[in-house]
Amino acid sequence: MIQIQNFVFNPFMENTYVLYDETKEAIVVDPGCYEQAEKDELTDFIESNELKVVKLINTHCHIDHVFGNAFVKKKYGVSLTIHKEDEATLKSVEVYAPAYGFQNFENTEAEVFFDEGDQVEFGNSVLDVFFTPGHAPGHVVLVNQVQKICIGGDVLFDGSIGRTDLPGGDFDTLIKSIHDKVFTLNDDTVVYPGHGGTTTVGKEKVSNPFCALSK
């Protein structure tokens, strides 16, 4: 049974997730920890629960989701996995980070790349990888259809969607990703987004002003 712990980090109020199960193996998704206190909060939870971090994953590579990549890699000796189409997005962060005031950003490269149809395995748990571009060119969401959970990054929010005005973003592509991928999940699937609170697929199908399905 997958357990999910959420942390809200950095000035962008980004959701960092630690997923783990009864084996104590864990994955870190989108580590947004920048300040030392945020890094301590993350590691304190992992250590207090005696978790073993076995994977580091980015749903996509915008600055607010990758602040802690280098830290997590070094701390736990894990590789970074992203979609190949977001490699340029990741590499660009070190160029623009100082302009946002993040002078101490530490860049790191991805070692592993996944694609549509791949699976992320840890402990007794499996997450399916869905390729969902539009907000970022290499965006993915991670889904466990048995437990009906979706780690959604910045694709779909409670009453909103990810912005599409950043490099590599495209509104029509994002809506297609939502309709063709996320909205194929069961209505009671819980979406854990990159910002804000959780929502469900069914709720957004009916009421989301940007992507609700017409009746």
UniProtKB/TrEMBL annotation:
Its cofactor is Zn(2+). Coiled coil: none annotated. Pfam families: Lactamase_B. Residues 13-195 form the Metallo-beta-lactamase domain. InterPro entries: MBL_Glyoxalase_II, Metallo-B-lactamas, RibonucZ/Hydroxyglut_hydro. Transmembrane segments: none annotated. One of its GO terms (molecular function) is metal ion binding. Keywords: Hydrolase, Metal-binding, Zinc. This is Glyoxylase, beta-lactamase superfamily II. It comes from Reichenbachiella faecimaris.
